[in-house]
């Protein structure tokens, strides 16, 4: 196993001055894929946005080490440049910007071939489309392509499997596998549909603002059988 | 040769409107602007080249002030005239196309154009002629004063043509540009018209334009202001007949203390006609921009207005006035309007993708000025519009 990429220790997150998450801890090495499961409103998206440094999502306690560097004081741009990437659950509907132009702009920074990236994410046919005019499923795949283009060391993927069809799920899983070749990945999901296509190395359940239980893929079955509220 | 009777009547009507202010925009004293009667050829050609118009293209019209004229067409089926020459050579035909869509007594600017205007192009595209090669025109003010050319574009039945006009002024000149433009897009014809203005901070601009879009004809209009201007007021009007289509885009950059009031009017006078008016304003520095739009449906037809303003400065301001008027129960009219600064959420999103703040803002502004006009244009015109968009972004930032 290679070195530890991301270490999250005792993190608490506040949004608008209100503490939503407490005592979040996990660590990831290269090629690890952690699924964080939780019901709607559990704070999954807030956790990822706080880790990425999105303004308004504040880490008020704990440490976040990316390749050993504490990134809490870094801006969203600095975190991205150091190899952290976030696939937004609902990307903003950027007007007048084609998917191809967005990917090309990111690839200019990282030296990738945006057409190659588009192929992996199954979005070659969407390159000439404005991102604000994509359907929900198309938007998910383009969003994942932007993360691939970033060539991250740690990728945070927010609900890749919500609102997408079966065909899209297998393409999304393919893109995630590609990411795992060179990165650690955190996937948050409430339905865990993606697990049928890509087995996680770790699974944690986020409920009532904290990680309740962590384990292997068996945790998904427990949640699907007994729900989020039942004790392990 | 004597002035034709119909033109005498036009002038009589104009005289009555010489003191009539425009409905919108600051009122300008037109009497303070004289006609310049001499311009060096080299200065005129240089001005045209700055506006992207060269004498080496197969069809062009270049006018500097009211003094220099150079034009030709080597494209079969396309004729290019200076207005006076067209009237002289086609005395009967001319009355069907000159001062038919724009009333000479609309306001003092049409009046001054009718009485003191010199030059302007007439571009006639013969029936069925389809050309990708553009007809390029440049109207420049080199020495200053009043420039009031009268332009006419006639795309006859089934014709398909692209016309580009660049208007510019020398940095040190002071002028009033009051061009008249009339566009006739006859049955099943297609006219793509691109106009780019690059004035200076001392120029007053009052163009007056109207288009008639015949049965099943298509008219795509792109207008961009990409430089400083003292005051600019215009409101081109498009009348659509049965099955006609019109797509009108205005991209307005407001630099320095520019006062800009630009509108578009589409009158859906034919069944199954459709018009879309898109306006984008980028107000920087202390500029003030008003975007007006009116779609009036007289028949079962569809119309849409989209006005978007981007405030790039605390001292700038933008007003949008979209109006819909349905005169038929089966008309379908919609509008959307928005004004604001760039969304922090969108900037942060792009920064999360590894773009710097400046790169993120540049990309969002580029997206803001990009419109669907690209779909209507041939490759060279698309590239030209893209270069105009890049200039606007550069100046806006």
What does this protein look like?
The complex is a heterodimer of chains A (232) and B (397). Chain A has helices spanning 44-52, 76-81, 99-110, 114-120, 136-150, 166-180, 218-226, and strands at 4-15, 18-29, 33-37, 57-66, 69-70, 84-87, 154-158, 184-189, 202-207, 210-215. By secondary structure, chain A is α/β, with parallel strands linked by helices. In chain A, strands 6-7-8-3-9-10 form a 6-stranded mixed sheet, with helices on both faces. A 4-stranded antiparallel sheet of chain A has the order 2-1-4-5. The relative contact order of chain A is 0.19. Chain B is built from 8 helices and 23 strands. Chain B folds into 2 domains: 5-343, no CATH class; 344-397, no CATH class. At the A-B interface, α2, α3 and α5 of A face α6 and α7 of B.
> For the terminal residues of chain A, how far apart are their CA atoms?
29 Å
Number of separate structural domains of chain B:
2
Uncertain regions of chain A: pLDDT < 50 for 5+ in a row?
A: none
Helix content of chain A: 25-40%
Q: For the residues shown, what is the average pLDDT of chain A?
A: 93
What's the number of helices of chain A?
7
Strand content of chain A: 25-35%
How many DSSP helices of chain B?
8
Helix content of chain B: 10-25%
Please write the string of helix (H) and strand (E) elements of chain A.
EEEHEEHEHHHEHEEEH
Taking the sheet with the most strands of chain A, its summary is: 6 strands, mixed
* C-alpha Rg of chain A (nearest Å): 17 Å
Q: Based on helices, strands and strand pairing, what is the structural class of chain B? A: alpha/beta
Could you give the count of β-strands of chain B? 23
Q: Alpha-carbon distance between the termini of chain B?
A: 54 Å
- Estimate the global geometry of chain B from the Cα principal axes: globular
| Overall strand count of chain A | 10
Instruction: Describe the global form of chain A.
Output: globular
